[in-house]
């Protein structure tokens, strides 16, 4: 089998960056489970406390990430990432010793803040470690790490909690961040000097001008603008029903124990999708087409699940697990091209700002969607929300495809007019 998706790992720089990401991603999912166990089981708090944790996890990406990203673009990426990892170790230690919810939320927020700074630096570093030709594979590997750790992290965290106690994953997480630092210490100095040579010019550049530059770049780059809007709306739709999925699973006949298997099927589909996307990169020619088509098919699957929870369609559990697998597979068909567009349509020197702005828009959608989903579920019912979310996903993909076709026809007509003239 050809190297395919793993080609960028031949580059020493990217290999170090990717190794650090794997352990960083693992840590993120280890403590997500541990925090919920502490809040719900050890302290006996209700759903409001869990909701507060989830909101505080996402908040730094909205209110800190975009503003800090200007400094991320100015500073050496290697040093930024190492500093962030050191601070994350400190803040995870704070989570380990947190005596109550308020102290826990403080350290959750602080850890989320450095994560919101680390990620734009990592996104920017990708562009400095691989060639443009290897960018699709590098982006796919990055997505593969995130998708894989979504499965491995909670499973490993659950095992560690069972054997060593609720707070033990924090220790493993700190060790993981230390290993990530070791990988980054081996990262060669990135060639960023051309971006920072004119220091006097950089000093004269106003902070707000640079910050708004990230927003302006997205608004003035058609392909990037469409992908960011499509991704943000898709995230909103997904998180409308994400918190309700456990109730859908009950209606589909899944027991409490089997629910984890259903979620794992989605995760496995994401991993397989990332592997396929990395080994077949023809999608990079028309990434928006691919994202929109994936949205149409995934929306169709969500509608089927909604109809199943209404007892309109009946399938054995294995059939729904297969549907969940393909839902994860199609999810990679949206997330991987989005990551590629974000990287390929953004200048290296603006990568931090642009990625932080795009992530903040997505995270904002993720924060407001669960509340809207819960209200709609009380009004219309869980099954109706799921079917509606699937219909909205299909419609979104169709609208984007129609927009693309209309634009292509306009360009064709303009070309023909020029030829005739």
UniProtKB/TrEMBL annotation:
<dbReference type="InterPro" id="IPR020846">
    <property type="entry name" value="MFS_dom"/>
</dbReference>
<dbReference type="GO" id="GO:0022857">
    <property type="term" value="F:transmembrane transporter activity"/>
</dbReference>
<feature type="transmembrane region" description="Helical">
    <location>
        <begin position="290"/>
        <end position="313"/>
    </location>
</feature>
<dbReference type="Pfam" id="PF07690">
    <property type="entry name" value="MFS_1"/>
</dbReference>
<keyword id="KW-1133">Transmembrane helix</keyword>
<feature type="transmembrane region" description="Helical">
    <location>
        <begin position="354"/>
        <end position="376"/>
    </location>
</feature>
<feature type="transmembrane region" description="Helical">
    <location>
        <begin position="226"/>
        <end position="247"/>
    </location>
</feature>
<dbReference type="GO" id="GO:0005886">
    <property type="term" value="C:plasma membrane"/>
</dbReference>
<keyword id="KW-0812">Transmembrane</keyword>
<feature type="transmembrane region" description="Helical">
    <location>
        <begin position="21"/>
        <end position="43"/>
    </location>
</feature>
<keyword id="KW-0813">Transport</keyword>
<dbReference type="InterPro" id="IPR036259">
    <property type="entry name" value="MFS_trans_sf"/>
</dbReference>
<protein>
    <submittedName>
        <fullName>Macrolide transporter</fullName>
    </submittedName>
</protein>
<dbReference type="InterPro" id="IPR011701">
    <property type="entry name" value="MFS"/>
</dbReference>
<feature type="transmembrane region" description="Helical">
    <location>
        <begin position="85"/>
        <end position="110"/>
    </location>
</feature>
<feature type="transmembrane region" description="Helical">
    <location>
        <begin position="49"/>
        <end position="73"/>
    </location>
</feature>
<feature type="transmembrane region" description="Helical">
    <location>
        <begin position="155"/>
        <end position="185"/>
    </location>
</feature>
<feature type="transmembrane region" description="Helical">
    <location>
        <begin position="259"/>
        <end position="278"/>
    </location>
</feature>
<feature type="transmembrane region" description="Helical">
    <location>
        <begin position="382"/>
        <end position="405"/>
    </location>
</feature>
<keyword id="KW-1003">Cell membrane</keyword>
<feature type="transmembrane region" description="Helical">
    <location>
        <begin position="319"/>
        <end position="342"/>
    </location>
</feature>
<keyword id="KW-0472">Membrane</keyword>
<feature type="domain" description="Major facilitator superfamily (MFS) profile">
    <location>
        <begin position="1"/>
        <end position="409"/>
    </location>
</feature>
